Amino acid sequence: MQDDQPKWRDDPVDLFSDWKIEIISFNDEGVETTDTYHVHKNFLAHGSRRSKYFFRLFRSEESFTENQASTSRIDLDPLAAQAFPVLLDFVYGSNLSITSQTATALHHLGEYFEIRPLQDTSFEFCQHDMSLDNLHAYYASAKQLHDDNVMNLIVDYLRLKISKLSPTNPIVLQSSPDLWLRVLGLDDRREKIEFKDTILLSQIIAKMCMSQSEAPMDAKTFYTFTNLLTSIHSNAALDLCELDDRYSLGDDDDESDLSALQQLCVDALSANWTDRNKWNDEQFDKMKYRKPKFIVKVLRQTVSDATSKLPRKSHYADY
């Protein structure tokens, strides 16, 4: 036994514990795990770090069956269950041991067990620690734990940093459309972001939408995003065309005009025709499966754009 460790970590035989907490969690396969903690009511429900959850429980002995067995059985998400020992350390007086991986879970536990100092300290850590490098980890935890406060923090951070966001950042590739509706102000919760140009945004939208299964993405959501676009990066053009085909609400025949989105894609591809020297086989395959009217427009517009950029021959050259 170490004198400096929180008392709940001592040998249960020497603890003189007067309460037991059983934390139950289920993994993705549905396998149950139960962790048992021998604790003290005085630490849980008294002092500046007390839990109001346990305070009410201990004060209402006739109303809660837990008191009959001096045991609380609590179901928690696996992320929260893993962080529960850190909560106990904090309640017993230790400094909070918090990392990027545990911060959201500790904030969630602070809310669940109504430990305001834990909740506030964890939230402040999230605010200062959050970066474009770890944002996807915060997002995954906040989504899994349904932590709206941390999710709002993520949304606000992305709104602030979107101009510096790489389209291949994991937060783009691993997030749901709902996040981006909130970030861009398309869900009426925040003011809509106004862009001077949408070149970078087109790449973010293309990468995010291409990474979705069909379940969370539908035509209405896709076109809500693309209606923001006034210009498109050539690297995003073919992906956006493929998505436009997937979510198209009508059956275009080859004689009809291109959609507004596909015309933007034509503009991007023709204006940046030299980029095709860097295309890989996948990009050429995507182009191969475009409709004839699209390919013809790209070719015509490419020739026109390329010709306009050639130096004009002076009529004095013949003299």
From TrEMBL:
<dbReference type="InterPro" id="IPR051481">
    <property type="entry name" value="BTB-POZ/Galectin-3-binding"/>
</dbReference>
<feature type="domain" description="BTB">
    <location>
        <begin position="17"/>
        <end position="100"/>
    </location>
</feature>
<dbReference type="Pfam" id="PF00651">
    <property type="entry name" value="BTB"/>
</dbReference>
<protein>
    <recommendedName>
        <fullName>BTB domain-containing protein</fullName>
    </recommendedName>
</protein>
<dbReference type="InterPro" id="IPR011333">
    <property type="entry name" value="SKP1/BTB/POZ_sf"/>
</dbReference>
<dbReference type="InterPro" id="IPR000210">
    <property type="entry name" value="BTB/POZ_dom"/>
</dbReference>
